[in-house]
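Regression test case RT-17, inverse folding.

Input:
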């Protein structure tokens, strides 16, 4: 049987994160696939080993991005849907696999082939006013994001009827797809590269809490700082982002900022922390799985992807959702009785292994095979 002719579509390659890791695993699943993205920043090439950057087919928006000094892709976002609709996806593909978190499903309108959409999330900033209010950055920023949200919602809803299958990266995202798009979704959690992360029984736990990830509002690093202040605990923050200056202003001597640390530093703090704090609601959340792969327990708000990744009593605990003060008090209550030694690092690691890339590739291949199977 001939290999299926697959097109892979991603929204943009401007930085490396969980969605780019997903596309890398798509390319490993279908190594002969052609890869498309409206905006490609070749300066990010060292961060992504596969697919090779010179193999990614792009559009004139990449030239526009370069012409503006690659300072920000945000001004180009209103043009992305049109660029997606004009991708050359009618060139004899058997299926199109789309990696979506805002506009990418518009590629479904550029092809007659079956389309499988892997949804990191429908655009939460378009559908959730409270989420948009935190991300907007002032009156002008919120107004611009609201206008872009109208476009994103329209793009998602016009493309939804053309999707053959929808795959959500967590049960929470599947519920959004059901509620906002009116479609069912299969849940396949995203891949986590576990080979870089492992426990070390010779490394003792230390008396500090950890927050890791991009320093952006929706991840709620501000709550991690307030939780540490509330209980008088040391806090280590690994990561960088536009929110860092505000966080440093509110933090006291209990908090240490390590910035965007390399893997060896990240592995070290995962192995030694008392617990990883996850006070924001993630679509899935790769960081907690990395921490669990190092044997660290994870304390998370009991919503979103944490319901898929954190098993109470086995790999961590859930804190009830609520307003900021309630969440802080909930974490404080859990931490009063939290004992890191009660969690067996080998058991926590074994749980994390269920999110490895091999399982992800096999499940995605099965979905596409089902779509291509004769009726």
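Golden output:
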């Amino acid at each position: 049987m001939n290999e299926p002719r697959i097109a892979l579509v991603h929204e943009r390659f401007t930085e490396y994160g969980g969605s780019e890791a997903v596309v890398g695993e798509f390319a490993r699943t279908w190594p002969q696939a052609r890869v498309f993205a409206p905006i490609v920043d070749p300066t990010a090439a060292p961060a992504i080993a596969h697919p090779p950057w010179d193999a990614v087919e792009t559009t004139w928006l990449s030239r526009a991005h370069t012409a503006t000094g690659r300072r920000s892709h945000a001004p180009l976002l209103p043009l992305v849907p049109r660029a997606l609709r004009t991708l050359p996806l009618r060139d004899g593909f058997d299926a199109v696999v789309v990696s979506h978190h805002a506009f990418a499903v518009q590629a479904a309108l550029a092809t007659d082939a079956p389309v499988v959409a892997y949804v990191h999330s429908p655009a939460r900033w378009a559908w959730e006013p409270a989420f948009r209010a935190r991300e907007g950055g002032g009156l002008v920023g919120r107004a611009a994001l609201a206008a872009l949200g109208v476009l994103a919602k329209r793009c998602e809803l016009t493309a939804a009827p053309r999707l053959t299958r929808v795959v959500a990266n967590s049960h929470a995202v599947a519920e959004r797809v059901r509620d906002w798009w009116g479609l069912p979704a299969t849940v396949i959690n995203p891949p986590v590269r576990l080979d870089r992360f492992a426990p070390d029984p010779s490394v003792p736990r230390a008396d500090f809490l950890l927050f890791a990830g991009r320093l952006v509002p929706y991840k709620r690093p501000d709550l991690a700082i307030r939780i540490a202040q509330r209980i008088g605990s040391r806090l280590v923050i690994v990561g960088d982002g536009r929110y860092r200056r505000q966080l440093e202003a509110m933090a006291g001597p209990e908090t240490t900022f390590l910035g965007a640390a390399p893997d060896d530093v990240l592995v070290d703090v995962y192995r030694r922390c008392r617990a990883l704090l996850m006070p924001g609601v993630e679509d899935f959340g790769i960081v907690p799985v990395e921490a669990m792969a190092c044997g660290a327990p994870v304390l998370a708000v009991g919503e979103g992807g944490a319901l898929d990744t954190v098993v109470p009593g086995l790999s961590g605990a859930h804190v009830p959702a609520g307003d900021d003060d309630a969440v802080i008090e909930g974490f404080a209550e859990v931490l009063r009785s939290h004992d890191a030694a009660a969690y067996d690092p080998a058991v926590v690691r074994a749980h994390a292994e269920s999110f490895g890339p091999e399982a992800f590739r096999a499940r995605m291949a099965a979905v596409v095979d089902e779509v291509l199977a004769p009726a």
